[in-house]
Structures are given as structure tokens and as C-alpha cells.
Amino acid sequence: MWLLARLLPQYGFTLSGSALWSCLALLAGFTVLLSAKSALFRHNTTARPDRKSLQNARTLVTTGIYRYTRNPVYVSMALMLLAWMIFLENWLSISGIIIFILFIDKYQILAEEEALERTFGEAYLQYKKRVRRWI
After folding, report:
1. How many domains does the structure of the chain reveal?
2. In this structure, is residue 25 part of a structural domain?
3. Can you tell me the distance from the alpha carbon of 72 to that of 69, in angstroms, rounded to the nearest whole number?
4. DSSP-derived secondary structure for 37-77
5. Mean pLDDT (whole number) for 46-58
6. What CA–CA distance (Å, rounded) separates 113 from 96?
7. What angle do CA 71, 73, 79 make, to 5 degrees?
8. What is the pTM of this model?
9. CA-to-CA distance for 98 and 11, rounded, in angstroms?
10. 3-state class of 12 per DSSP?
11. Which of 1, 27, 55, 130 is deepest in the core (most CB within 10 A)?
């Protein structure tokens, strides 16, 4: 993102108060992340997204931030990338956010969902119907 912004400054934009907006997006990202981690901690379950850890998970967390998104940690990362895009003030930086979302969706989230479905069965399928993957 930074390299694109520096190499192609003609795609820059000016946003009044960009530092403030960037800080707000970053703060939102950290808030979502802390909310997700604390919900997992309260339920004494893993925050590790690898298959083995997910298969050993004892609790399906569906409360707190997990009522609104099945992947709050990834939502928080996307918000932090948004903060970086705003800070860079370059439209091409949005490509970093899009690439992140597409990559995580295909190569991480699908595998996590399969592991959670094997571990929690019908409870996870019902949760999937109620709560969106992102937001």
C-alpha cells in the first residue's frame, strides 16, 4: 500500500482531518480486536485459527462481538488497513484491503469454517445462518 501511494501519487486524495479519521479507524480496529480476544478469553477457548486448535476448541463463542460477525479479528485487521489507507491518502491503497479480504476469505476463513463445522456440527451451522461472515 505504501509503495503504491509513493510510486503513483497522482491517485492521491486530500481528506480534511485525515489524521483524525485514520486514528479513529485504527481505534475501531483495536476495539473490535480486543472485544474478540476478550470474548474468547472469557469462554476459555482458543484464539488460534489453525485447524488443530479449532478441532480442540470446547466452546463455540456466539456472544459479544461474535453476535455481529463470525470473524471479528479479520474485520479488525481490515479496519486497521483502512486506517493505513486514510493515512496514506491514496485511492490505490484500497487494493491492499481488497487483496487482504479476498485472500483471507479464500485461504483462511473457509478452512476455519470447515474445522468449526466438524467440531460443533449443527450448532455452528445455525450460527452461520444467523451471523454474517464479515459484517
Report:
1. 1
2. yes
3. 6
4. HHHHHHTT-----SHHHHHT------SGGGGT-S-HHHHHH
5. 74
6. 24
7. 105
8. 0.89
9. 17
10. strand
11. 1
Beta bridge partners, 12, equal 90
Residue count of the chain, please give it. Answer: 135
Residue 10 cell numbers, joined: 497522482
Q: Is residue 26 part of a domain?
A: yes
Q: Which residues are CB-neighbours of 104 under 8 A, at least 6 positions away? A: 74, 77
**To which residue does cell 462481538 refer?**
65
Question: 54-111: per-residue pLDDT in tens?
Answer: 767 889 999 999 999 999 999 999 999 999 999 999 889 999 999 999 999 999 999 9
Q: Is residue 7 part of a domain?
A: no
Q: Does 100 reside within a domain?
A: yes
Counting residues of the chain whose pLDDT is more than 90, the rounded percentage is: 71
Cα radius of gyration rounded to whole Å, the chain: 17
In this prediction, residue 1 carries a pLDDT of 74
pLDDT in the model for residue 55: 67
Q: In which band, very low, low, confident or very high, does the pLDDT at 51 lie, cut at 50, 70 and 90?
A: low
Identify the domain containing residue 31 by its residue range.
16-130
How many CA atoms are closer than 13 Å to the CA of 95, on its beta-carbon side? 10
